[in-house]
Amino acid sequence: MKANFDYTGCNVFIAGGTSGINLGIAKAFSEAGARIGVASRRQEKVDAAVGMLSNTAGPALGYTFDVRDAAVVAEGIDAFADEVGQIDVLVSGAAGNFPALAHDISPNGFKAVVDIDLLGTYHVMKAAYPHMKKPGGSLINISAPQSVVAMSHQVHVCAAKAGVDMVTRCLAIEWAPEGLRVNGVIPGPIDGTEGMARLAPTHEARNRVTASVPMRRWGAPEDVARACLFLGSDAAGFVNGTVMTADGGWALNGAPLDFGGAA
């Protein structure tokens, strides 16, 4: 089912928008008519995404930066805004994950996930703020079920993503008087993503994930993209500070998996 949203004339930037869920989000906004900017750490992934996302609104624009580097993030988002003007929708989706027990995670491993997920989200939000359309701009953070459900082998991700959700809520309070809305989306198990390939790498593990989702299926990047299309649109004009799920009810079921066992 295709969502009918018209983003013709809008400028949309997706941090991390070169693979998996985030590329699916970028593709959905592109198909809805938006001018697109994407960013990633790897130039080859940026180039591939830009080639895929060019549309009748013009060529997509790509930037190479690591969300952990605030100054470089700002340079990239500044460059996109200089090229296209105000940003209508900003999606922050860069993330890192690996399964590990708490006592086995090195300090650097824990820090790397927090730096990418939590600090990276803050860096993107802060860099985008001066360039957002005011009023009317929409900022969307891609979270994870780990923000609301405690999971074994995921303490680093649970801590980081819980922080992301609070960044979303705090910025929603601070920036709403200027006409900006800040919301989040929690995807469930999404097929074709690097994160789920790490967490459920075998056929048996995939079957356990499927059985744990009330809808008895995995999601697709398009399922998350449709939530973002809604949150970025006037249809969500009074939706602010919400972290909504697109997970088939997985979190309601407690996401009952030990990802160390699933691996």
What does this 3D model show about the protein?
- With 263 residues, the protein is α/β, with parallel strands linked by helices.
- Helix content is 43%, strand content 13%.
- It is built from 9 helices and 7 strands.
- The chain has a 7-stranded parallel beta sheet with strand order 3-2-1-4-5-6-7, with helices on both faces.
- Helix 3 runs parallel beside helix 4.
- The longest helix has 22 residues.
- The chain is globular, with a radius of gyration of 17 Å.
- The relative contact order is 0.15.
- The model has no long low-confidence stretch (mean pLDDT 92).
Q: Care to give the gist of this entry?
A:
The protein has 263 residues and is an alpha/beta fold. Helix content is 43%, strand content 13%. The protein contains 9 helices and 7 strands.
Percent of residues in beta strands: 5-15%
Widest sheet, order of strands: 3-2-1-4-5-6-7
Mean pLDDT over all positions: 92
What multimeric state do the chains show? Answer: single chain
- The first-to-last residue Cα distance is 33 Å
- Given helix and strand content, the structural type is alpha/beta
Strand tally, please? Answer: 7
What best-fitting shape do the alpha-carbon axes yield?
globular
Order of helices and strands: EHEHEHEHEHEHHHEH
Largest sheet: 7 strands, parallel
